[in-house]
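In response to the reviewer comment on reproducibility (Comment 2.3), we provide here a single inverse folding case reported in full, input and output, so that an independent group could reproduce the run without further information from us. The C-alpha cells appear first.
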C-alpha cells in the first residue's frame, strides 16, 4: 500500500467562515478522493509502526507498545470512571487490538475549534471501531486565569478581562489549586451578564455549576475544567476516555521509554537540535529561537563534563516553578539531572542498566515529590510512538510535530506514524445582531483611505476639482508638473525631473488640505471598527460562550 502524502509536507490554515471545519482526513471520504480517508491513514500507520525494530532495554519496541496500550486503556478507563459512566469491554484482548485514536490539549477554556478535535476523536473511533482517548496536558503551565469577554458594538467594542480565579505563583496545571473561591464561584454569572447583548443563552451559565462540583472533588483548577467539559461531552453522546499527562508518565511502560530516552540523553539532545535545524531550513525560518529555542549545553567548574539540556521540565512540590532539565552522562553508571539552580539528582539510568532499574529510579523520583514531565514535542512523541494508531492534532500542533518526526527518524532510523489534523472556526453571531454592519469591511475601507491619501501626496492635481475654480498659481503648478512628466528622463535630467515633480507636489499640498482633513477624520472611526471587529468576531472566544444548539451543530453532532 502506498503511504499517503506526509503531513509534514502540508500547510494548514484555520477556516475563516464561522461554522467551517477542517478535518484531514475527513470522517467520510469524498467521492472524488476515496483514498483520502481515515481507514487509509490507519492502515499506513500500522505499516509504519511494523517497521520499528528498535530495542528498548531487553525488549523490542513493538512489545513495549503492546504493553503500554494495555496500561493506557486500563488507567484511562479507571480515571474517567471516577466522574462519569464508562463501559469497559469484556474482551480485553480485542479491546487492546482495536485502533486507539488520541489527541490532547491543555485543561483551559479553549476555543470551539480546539474542542472540535474531541468530537473528531469520537467520530474517527466510531468509524474505525476503536477507542478515543484525550490527553489532558496538565504538565503545561497555567499561564492565565482570565478570559476576554467582548462588549460593545461594531463601531466601538473591546474585550473585558474576566478572571475565573485569583493570581498565583507560576506552576503547571497539575499543581494548580483554586486560590479565590469567590472569584471562581461567580465567574459564570459575571461572564454571562457581560455576554447578554451578544449571546443571551450561552451554555456557560448552566455548565459552570458542574465545574464547581468537579472542583470540590478534584481540588485542582485544570481537572475541574477538563472533567466538567468531559461530562458535558458524555451528555452530548461522545464516547471518549481521558487521561492526564501526569498519570500517563507514571505508567511503568512509559517510564521504561522515558528511561531509555534519558539513558541516551546526548543522542536525544543532538536529535532534537538536528530536527529543529532541518525544520528551519525546510520552512525558511530565521532565528534560532523559532519555533522554539535549541536545547542548550552548559559547563560548570567541576570535572563532570558538559551538561546537555533534555526536553523535560522538572519541579518539586515545595517549588512548583517549571525549570529546564540538564543531563550529565560523564559519571560511569550514573545519570545526573539538574535544573542548574537548586535541584540535582543521581539516577542509575544508563544504556547498560536494566529497564527495571529505570522504572525504580523514576518511581523513587516521584516518591520524593520531584516531578519530571515531558515538554510538548516529547509528549506527542510518546503518544504517537507508544499508544496512538492515529494522533489528532490542531493546526499549531501539526506544524510543530514535523520536528517530532525528525527526532524519531534520527533516534530510530524509521518514520513515525502520521497524524490527522482537525480545526474549525466559530464566531459569535455579530452579523445577525448587526446586519447593517455585516456588509462593511473596515479593513478594506481603511486600506482604500490610505491609497487615497497616498494619491493626494503624489498626484495632488487629481484632487483639485474643476479647472475653472483653480487659482492662477495652482493652474500654473499643474502645467509645470505636466511639462516635467512629459520630459524624457535622460541621464542628465532624471534627478532634476524627479526633484521638480516633488517640489510641485509640495506646493500643491495646501490646495488639497480639505480633502486630506476629510479623509483623516474617517481614519479614527475606521480604526475603531477594526479593533471592534477583532474583539467581537474573534475565533478565540471560549467554546462555552456559545449556545448548546450552535455547539452541537459545529461539533458534527447534528446535521447542518
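Designed residues, in position order:
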Amino acid at each position: 500500500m502506498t503511504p499517503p502524502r506526509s503531513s509534514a509536507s502540508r500547510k494548514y490554515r484555520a477556516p475563516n467562515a464561522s461554522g467551517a471545519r477542517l478535518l484531514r482526513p475527513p470522517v467520510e471520504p469524498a467521492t472524488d478522493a476515496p483514498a483520502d480517508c481515515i481507514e487509509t491513514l490507519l492502515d499506513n500507520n500500522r505499516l509504519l509502526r511494523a517497521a520499528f525494530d528498535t530495542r528498548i532495554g531487553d525488549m523490542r519496541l513493538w512489545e513495549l507498545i503492546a504493553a503500554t496500550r494495555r496500561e493506557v486503556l486500563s488507567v484511562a478507563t479507571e480515571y474517567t470512571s471516577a466522574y462519569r459512566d464508562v463501559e469497559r469491554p469484556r474482551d480485553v484482548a480485542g479491546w487492546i487490538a482495536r485502533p486507539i485514536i488520541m489527541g490532547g490539549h491543555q485543561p483551559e477554556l479553549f476555543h470551539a475549534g480546539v474542542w472540535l478535535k474531541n468530537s473528531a476523536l469520537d467520530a474517527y473511533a466510531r468509524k474505525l471501531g476503536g477507542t478515543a482517548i484525550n490527553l489532558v496536558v496538565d504538565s503545561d503551565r497555567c499561564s492565565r486565569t482570565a478570559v476576554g469577554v467582548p462588549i460593545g458594538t461594531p463601531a466601538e467594542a473591546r474585550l473585558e478581562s474576566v478572571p475565573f480565579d485569583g493570581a498565583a505563583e507560576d506552576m503547571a496545571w497539575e499543581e494548580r489549586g483554586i486560590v479565590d473561591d469567590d472569584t471562581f464561584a461567580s465567574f459564570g454569572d459575571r461572564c454571562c451578564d457581560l455576554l447578554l447583548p451578544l449571546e443571551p443563552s450561552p451554555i456557560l451559565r448552566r455548565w459552570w455549576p458542574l465545574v464547581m462540583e468537579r472542583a470540590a472533588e478534584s481540588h485542582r483548577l485544570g481537572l475541574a475544567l477538563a472533567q466538567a467539559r468531559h461530562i458535558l461531552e458524555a451528555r452530548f453522546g461522545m464516547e471518549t476516555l481521558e487521561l492526564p499527562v501526569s498519570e500517563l508518565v507514571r505508567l511503568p511502560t512509559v517510564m521504561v521509554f522515558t528511561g531509555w530516552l534519558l539513558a541516551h540523553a546526548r543522542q536525544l539532545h543532538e536529535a532534537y537540535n538536528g530536527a529543529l535545524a532541518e525544520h528551519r531550513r525546510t520552512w525558511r525560518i530565521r532565528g534560532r529561537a523559532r519555533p522554539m529555542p535549541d536545547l542548550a549545553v552548559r559547563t560548570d567548574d567541576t570535572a563532570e563534563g558538559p551538561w546537555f539540556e533534555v526536553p523535560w521540565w522538572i519541579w518539586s512540590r515545595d517549588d512548583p516553578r517549571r525549570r529546564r532539565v540538564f543531563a550529565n552522562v560523564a559519571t560511569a553508571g550514573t545519570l545526573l539531572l539538574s535544573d542548574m539552580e537548586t535541584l540535582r539528582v543521581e539516577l542509575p539510568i544508563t544504556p547498560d542498566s536494566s529497564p527495571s532499574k529505570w522504572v525504580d529510579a523514576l518511581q523513587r523520583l516521584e516518591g520524593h515529590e520531584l516531578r519530571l514531565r515531558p515538554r510538548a514535542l516529547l509528549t506527542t512523541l510518546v503518544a504517537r510512538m507508544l499508544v496512538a494508531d492515529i494522533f489528532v492534532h490542531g493546526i499549531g500542533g501539526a506544524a510543530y510535530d514535523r520536528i517530532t518526526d525528525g527526532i524519531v527518524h534520527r533516534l530510530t532510523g524509521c518514520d513515525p506514524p502520521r497524524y490527522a489534523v482537525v480545526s474549525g472556526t466559530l464566531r459569535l453571531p455579530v452579523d445577525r445582531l448587526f446586519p447593517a454592519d455585516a456588509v462593511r469591511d473596515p479593513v478594506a475601507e481603511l486600506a482604500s483611505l490610505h491609497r487615497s491619501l497616498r494619491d493626494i501626496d503624489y498626484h495632488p492635481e487629481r484632487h483639485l476639482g474643476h479647472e475653472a475654480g483653480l487659482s492662477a498659481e495652482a493652474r500654473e503648478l499643474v502645467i509645470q508638473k505636466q511639462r516635467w512628466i512629459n520630459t524624457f528622463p535622460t541621464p542628465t535630467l532624471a534627478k532634476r525631473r524627479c526633484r521638480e515633480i516633488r517640489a510641485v507636489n509640495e506646493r500643491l499640498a495646501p490646495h488639497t488640505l480639505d480633502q486630506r482633513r476629510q479623509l483623516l477624520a474617517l481614519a479614527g472611526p475606521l480604526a475603531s471598527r477594526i479593533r471592534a471587529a477583532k474583539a467581537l468576531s474573534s475565533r478565540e472566544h471560549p467554546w462555552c460562550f456559545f449556545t448548546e444548539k450552535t455547539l452541537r451543530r459545529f461539533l458534527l453532532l447534528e446535521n447542518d
